[in-house]
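hiii so um. not sure if this is the right channel but i have a protein structure encoded as tokens and i wanna go backwards to a sequence. like what aa goes where. can anyone help
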């Protein structure tokens, strides 16, 4: 049989193989990027927010929402629903009185802006700048507790902007302001030692202050024990 005849004889088989190959290609599954799954388990960890002055500030409330949203893959629509579900007391009363905020189509940005405008501290920024600069460690306040108080005051001096780079610069300036106020406000030997060491971050300053504070407490305990023991020996003599 000539080569041409052999090729013609194999032609039906070739066509059949081509048809099978095309079928396989059509049936191939196309990989679609998987969407990030939404985890709502962390919603239970968000406490109800009332908007009252003695509780969390409105900025602290939204900061928690947005942090958990990044971890859990919540979209803005999810965040809006979660915010509404967590409002209570004065905050819920404010929301209920505004139809444009209650409706389902209200965006997270509009909801957040309305609550921030209503429940933000009305005192001028300079008030908290002054309070931070004048902050002093209390007699019964530990170095760590004083650091927490300074941080809370400092948070109220930080402007919020949309530009991430500008916000980063503002945050860095606030951190330096916080460090200076904390070191200046520490009292006694602890304050002297921390100023002498010149820590470059707030974390370093607090860690150093707590260490010195504990050493001083230990010295006082040892000194007290020696005094008691010395007095006991004098009585026995």
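sure thing!! here u go:
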């Amino acid at each position: 049989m000539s080569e041409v005849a052999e090729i013609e004889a194999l032609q039906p088989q070739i066509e059949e193989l081509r048809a099978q190959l095309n079928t396989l290609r059509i049936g191939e599954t196309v990989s679609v990027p998987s969407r990030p799954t939404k985890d709502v388990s962390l919603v239970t960890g968000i406490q109800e927010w009332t908007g009252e002055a003695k509780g969390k500030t409105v900025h602290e409330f939204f900061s928690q929402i947005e942090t958990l949203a990044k971890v859990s893959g919540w979209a803005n629509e999810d965040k809006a629903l979660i915010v509404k579900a967590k409002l209570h007391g004065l905050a819920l009363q404010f929301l209920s009185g505004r139809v444009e905020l209650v409706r389902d189509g209200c965006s997270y940005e509009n909801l957040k802006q309305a609550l921030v405008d209503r429940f933000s501290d009305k005192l001028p920024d300079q008030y908290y700048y002054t309070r931070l600069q004048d902050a002093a460690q209390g007699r019964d306040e530990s170095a760590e507790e004083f650091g927490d108080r300074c941080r809370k005051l400092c948070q109220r001096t930080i402007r919020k902007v949309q530009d991430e780079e500008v916000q980063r610069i503002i945050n860095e300036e606030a951190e330096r302001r916080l460090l200076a106020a904390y070191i200046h406000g520490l009292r006694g030997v602890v304050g002297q030692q921390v100023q002498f060491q010149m820590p470059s971050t707030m974390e370093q300053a607090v860690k150093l202050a707590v260490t010195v504070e504990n050493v001083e407490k230990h010295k006082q305990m040892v000194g007290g024990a020696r005094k008691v023991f010395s007095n006991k020996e004098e009585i026995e003599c």
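oh and The CA atoms of residues 125 and 157 lie 6 Å apart.
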